[in-house]
Amino acid sequence: MTQLYDFLALVSKPAAAKTV
Questions:
Q1: Within its chain, how far is the Cα of 15 from the centroid?
Q2: SS3 1
């Protein structure tokens, strides 16, 4: 489960940056 959250965290950062 930890890997999943790590993956989401890495993907969320670029995604949020693109949104802004």
A1: 7
A2: coil
